[in-house]
Design a protein that fits this description.
It is built from 21 helices and 22 strands. By secondary structure, the protein is an alpha+beta fold. Strands 1, 2, 6, 7, 8, 9 and 20 form a 7-stranded mixed beta sheet that branches. Strands 14-15-16-17-13-18 form a 6-stranded antiparallel beta sheet, with no helix packed on it. Strands 11-10-19-12 form a 4-stranded antiparallel beta sheet. A hairpin with a 2-residue loop joins strand 7 and strand 8 (132-138). It is globular.
Length: 621
């Protein structure tokens, strides 16, 4: 019935979609198997993409020819650049999306790819022969053969939904859980665990008093995620902000006795950085209010997402508490919030290319690896799709370094450290934030995409080359053009910066704190006359490169030092348990995880700097 596919992707969420297009755009014939064709690329939680560190990931996905940024640009209803008041390493793009358009656009782009086929059914197991995956088995007993398989099951593996005292199987509201895969993988020797996540109630926007809330508009000039010529947003829908209060908290506390979070029915660990409203009230009992973001679900719907009010309390408790929130006095609820428990597999069981250590050509991506968030899932799917294609074609794996991308940090953390709670990316997890900015993802990663031969990378390289030429032209101008100190001193005085006493180059002025290139252009018309012919993107990136040149060079020096360890290969046959000078924990962890390089070994929990020194001696360095 089925041909033998190069890659089978199990699951049609964000990880599965990116995995399918990545493998297909590398040249593989792909089968995407999903339980419901109508929920491909469904935004199960909030209707938004990006945010702190997550926005950087979306831009990295785009730079590697993934589709998440393109889909977001086509379907967003609001755009904001977060953390503008901080340095450029912290700037993070975020877009509010139209939930229905987002899923529709993703499906359309998948269906436009002739190398991707689809099958709607539950996968109940994988087919393994001689330690290698060779297909999947469905609920109907159909076997689909393949050279490799990528599991992107999201929250569906033995998913269990909790609302107050009620609990029922499901991978998402209104959809059944997936069974069979966990049990088989455990029999094969994989270590599984349970995690939980949650989602807030959805409400009727017609029942809200918007005048009682703070308006949160988008940026005056909307940006975009993709480095391609996607459409720019001309009009935007505002979000709103409101707050809980002590009366809301008291009502919610009244439901704690029946809460699955507090009475022990939920066994899985929840996300530390996106807790439920009941968890926030319990953990931060000294606070008398918590911020809520009231977010529209799209252009043509009255459905509203109450961001910050995630809950697994009984539906009547959620409803009564919401009615005490300013603006929600007459709220009508479309459906209550709920918590969901699901199976995941400790990611230390993966190689750095996301292939499993126990079964060859089997890859895991997304929440099955213990992560949370669309962006984290999509990036893993992209890398798994690329590497599935490379593996079956006997090519070297594609592994991003921590100094090359947030995606590299994410996967390195997962495979070397594992996780005990849903892993979420933050800028603080990256050692080289000034290098891994959202504005330069194409500079960092598109050349790598071109080397891989990803579809579309040739055109992207042409665009990147033209962009770099413009940036270099601007930088050269700033470093060679002198400014008259008499003209600029009034501006410097207005920002409490020391006056100049002689002519200096523009880059010297720009390197001062609180000085911006936009302000210089306003003071010096001849500078604006020269620079206004360049795009805003190249203008901003050239400014960052010049203004933070010292910091950028320091980080590059640190990267070079780290790479001396990072690129030092460890013999794969090394017998760690025979190296007595290693600590007992290091021997155990190194034997279990088999790091490829010394850099990887240095980041394994329990491996000390002394252990690294021992390894250096052992391999003759």
């Amino acid at each position: 019935m089925f041909q033998k596919y190069d890659v089978i992707v199990v699951g049609g969420g964000h990880a599965g979609c990116e995995a399918a297009v990545a493998a297909a755009n590398m040249g593989s014939k792909v089968m995407l198997v999903t339980m419901n064709m109508q929920t491909i690329a469904q935004m199960s939680c909030n209707p938004a993409m990006g945010g702190v560190a997550k926005g950087q990931i979306v831009r990295e996905i785009d730079a590697l020819c993934g589709y998440s940024g393109i889909v977001t640009d086509h379907t967003m209803i609001q755009f904001r650049m977060l953390n503008r008041s901080k340095g450029p390493a912290m700037w993070s793009p975020r877009a509010q999306s139209d939930r229905m358009l987002f899923a529709a656009k993703w499906r359309l782009m998948l269906e436009e790819n002739d190398r991707i086929d689809f099958w709607q059914e539950m996968v109940t197991g994988i087919i393994v022969k001689d330690g290698r995956v060779c297909g999947v088995r469905t609920g109907l007993g159909i076997e689909i053969p393949a050279k490799s398989v990528i599991l992107t099951n999201g929250t569906f593996l033995n998913g269990l939904i909790h609302i107050g005292e009620k609990q029922f199987g499901g991978g998402r509201a209104g959809e059944r859980a997936a069974t069979g895969i966990t049990e088989q993988l455990v029999k094969l020797g994989f270590e599984s665990g349970r995690m939980k996540t949650g989602t807030p109630p959805r409400v009727d926007g017609r029942s809200l008093d918007w005048d009682r809330m703070e308006v949160q508009p988008g940026d005056e000039e909307a940006g975009r995620f993709s480095y391609t010529e996607t459409p720019r947003l001309k009009k935007q829908r505002p979000c709103h902000i409101t707050y809980t209060n002590p009366e809301v908290h008291e009502i919610l506390k009244g439901g704690f006795d029946d809460s699955p979070l507090f009475n022990g029915r939920i066994r899985g660990m929840g996300p530390r950085y996106c807790p439920s409203i009941e968890d926030k009230i319990d953990r931060f009992s000294d606070r008398d209010r918590h911020q809520l973001f009231v977010e529209p679900e799209g252009w043509n719907t009255v459905e509203v997402y109450v961001n910050g009010f995630s809950s697994s309390l009984a539906e009547n408790v959620q409803y009564e508490a919401m009615r005490k929130i300013p603006g929600f006095e007459n709220v009508k609820m479309f459906r209550p919030g709920y918590a969901i428990e699901y199976d995941f597999f400790q990611p230390t069981q993966l190689k750095p290319n996301l292939e499993t250590r126990l079964v060859d050509n089997l890859f895991f991506a997304g929440q099955i690896n213990g992560t949370t968030g669309y962006e984290e899932a999509a990036s893993q799917g992209l890398i798994a799709g690329i590497n599935a294609h490379l593996t079956i074609n006997e090519k070297d794996p594609f592994v991003l370094k921590r100094s090359e991308a947030y995606i590299g940090v994410l996967i390195d953390d997962l495979v070397n450290k594992g996780t005990k709670e849903p892993y979420r990316m933050f800028t603080s997890r990256a050692e080289f934030r000034i290098l891994l900015r959202q504005d330069n993802a194409d500079v960092r990663l598109t050349p790598l995409a071109a080397k891989l031969g990803l579809a579309g990378s040739v055109e992207r390289m042409e665009t990147l080359s033209a962009k770099l030429d413009q940036i270099n032209t601007i930088e050269n101008y700033l470093r060679t053009h002198s400014v008259d100190y008499l003209t600029i001193n009034s501006y410097l005085a207005s920002i409490n910066s020391a006056p100049l006493k002689q002519k200096v180059k523009l880059d010297r002025v720009l390197s001062r704190p609180h000085v911006s290139l936009t302000a210089i252009c306003e003071v010096l018309p001849e500078v604006w006359d020269y620079l206004n012919r360049f795009s805003l993107e190249t203008f901003n990136q050239a400014e960052i490169n010049v203004k933070y040149a010292g910091y950028i060079e320091k980080e590059k020096e640190l990267v070079n030092k780290m790479n001396r360890l990072e690129d030092l290969k460890l013999p794969q046959g090394i017998k760690y348990d025979a190296i007595n000078a290693l600590s007992a924990e290091a021997r155990e962890k190194l034997t279990e995880l088999r790091p490829i390089t010394l850099g990887q070994a240095s980041r394994i929990s329990g491996v000390s700097p002394a252990d690294i020194s021992v390894l250096l001696v052992h391999i003759g360095r």
